[in-house]
Structure formats: C-alpha cells, structure tokens
C-alpha cells in the first residue's frame, strides 16, 4: 500500500507545484475581498482535478498494463487510489486552515467557527463528488466522466440557488412551513451519512469494474 501511495505521489508531484501558485492567488483574493469562501474552493478544485488527472496520467504511461504484472491485487490498487485522494483532500483542507489563520493574523475579521463549518461543508461535497466520480471513471473513462461531473455540478448549483431564494422566515412546501436553517442542518447530517455509506458502495463498484477490465 505504501508503495502504491508513493507511486500516486510521484505521479502527481508535478501538478502539486502548480497548486501552490493557485493557492497563492486564492489567498490574496480572499485577503483583499475579506472572505474565506473563495479560499475554501481550493478543496473542491484540487480534489476533483487531482481525481481526474491521475487517471489521465495513468492512461498516458500505460500503468494499468504494467500493474497487472505486479504482485498486487486490483482491489489494493483501487484502495490506494481512494486513500490517496482522501489524503489530498485532508492536506488541502489543512493548508486552507493555515491560510485562513494567516489572513486572520494579518488582517483580522475571521469568524473561526463559521469558517471551519464552511470548510467542512465544502470538504464533504468534494468527497461525495469523488465517491461518485471514481466508479464512473473506471467504467467510462475520464473524458465521459467530465460530462457527468458537469451535470452533477449544475444540479447542485441550481439546488443551492433554490435554497438561497428561501426567505429568512422559512418556506411553504406542500402546505408545511419548513425553516431554511433546519433544511440545511438535516441536509448536512444526511450528507455525512451518505458519504459514509457511499464510501463502501463506491469502492465496491470501482473494484468490481476494475477487476472485469482487460488490459
């Protein structure tokens, strides 16, 4: 497993250098705009980009053909990819926390509990998107998976836009008055449960698909 994680790291090492440039840009943008939301978008940006990029690089160098000659099971290869993706998510989240604290020390005005909550929400969305993308990429390939990602992203954006239209007092839905804050609270709890259950389902699907493929 460690060897596979190292392979993933070396494969993405060149990309990580460009992430630093993006991180610097996002930091200065959030600094001058006095908002952490743009900074936190690094999580979903890098999380999704790295998920797709690593598959593209594998295909370009013929990794799958080489991997089947190694004393490794296909399940181990898939598990390493999932683990590496989540390690990137955690690493980027920690980096965002440090940049957020740095902005707070220099400029002030950071609401730590609220910012951490926003960071957690974006991290959760990123993980859910990755859990969806992994089986799709293994089945259809990176190019077709991009269309799936865009479709889901548009649906999520429309959903968020719809929630933003709810007034402060709540909304009437099928004759029942529902408070918007409770909707978000229950939705977040449901997303955590969905991510936990989705991890096993996504991993099982990816392993099942990968084991059926011929190289």
TrEMBL record:
InterPro entries (alphabetical): ABC2_memb-like
Native organism: Eisenbergiella tayi
Keyword Zinc-finger found: no
Segments crossing the lipid bilayer: 16-32, 38-61, 82-106, 118-138, 147-166, 186-207
Organism taxonomic ancestry: Bacteria, Bacillati, Bacillota, Clostridia, Lachnospirales
Alphabetized UniProt keyword annotations: Membrane, Transmembrane, Transmembrane helix
Protein name (Swiss-Prot/TrEMBL): ABC-2 transporter permease
Superkingdom of the organism of origin: Bacteria
């Amino acid at each position: 497993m460690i060897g596979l994680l190292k392979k993933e790291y070396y494969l993405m090492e060149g990309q990580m250098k460009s992430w630093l440039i993006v991180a610097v840009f996002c930091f200065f943008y959030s600094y001058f705009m006095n908002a952490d939301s743009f900074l936190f978008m690094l999580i979903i940006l890098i999380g999704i980009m790295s998920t797709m990029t690593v598959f593209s690089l594998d295909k370009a160098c013929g990794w799958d053909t080489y991997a089947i000659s190694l004393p490794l099971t296909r399940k181990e290869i898939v598990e390493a990819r999932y683990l590496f993706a989540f390690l990137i998510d955690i690493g980027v989240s920690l980096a965002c926390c440090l940049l957020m604290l740095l902005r707070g020390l220099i400029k002030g005005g950071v609401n730590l509990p609220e910012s951490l909550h926003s960071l957690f929400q974006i991290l959760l969305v990123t993980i859910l998107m990755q859990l969806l993308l992994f089986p799709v990429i293994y089945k259809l390939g990176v190019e077709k998976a991009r269309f799936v990602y865009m479709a889901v992203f548009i649906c999520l954006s429309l959903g968020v836009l719809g929630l933003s239209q709810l007034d402060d007092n709540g909304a009437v839905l099928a004759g029942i008055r529902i408070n918007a804050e409770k909707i978000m609270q229950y939705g977040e709890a449901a997303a955590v449960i969905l991510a936990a259950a989705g991890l096993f389902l996504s991993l099982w699907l990816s392993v099942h698909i990968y084991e059926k493929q011929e190289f």
